[in-house]
């Protein structure tokens, strides 16, 4: 069991909402906490959000990050040799 102390303003709003919706304050607090906890669990970090896209549109050549300098040099040489 947990006890929570609320500021007077929140307590008054909770009391009004309780009467308006014909629900107990306990039920309203439980619903609010469940919604909050669900949204916290549903949050994903940037890696999790993009995980399905990583490598999906790759060239299939796993050496590009290692051999890019040689490829650039080759293109520059080809450009100047064609003159």
Structural account:
The protein has helices spanning 8-21, 25-42, 46-50, 64-81. The radius of gyration is 30 Å and the shape is rod-shaped. The mean pLDDT is 87. 66% of the residues lie in helices and 0% in strands. It has 83 residues and is mainly α. The chain has a domain at 7-44.
Give a quick summary of the entry.
The chain is mainly alpha-helical.
Rg over CA atoms = 30 Å
Structural class: mainly alpha
What percentage of amino acids are in beta strands?
A: under 5%
Question: Gap between N and C termini, in Å?
Answer: 83 Å
- Main sheet: strands, sense, barrel: none
Helix content: 55-70%
Overall residue-averaged pLDDT value: 87
The unreliable regions are: none
The tally of beta strands, per DSSP, is 0
Shape: rod-shaped
Number of helices: 4
Order of helical and strand elements = HHHH
Keywords:
mainly alpha, 83 residues, rod-shaped, 0% strand, 66% helix, 4 helices
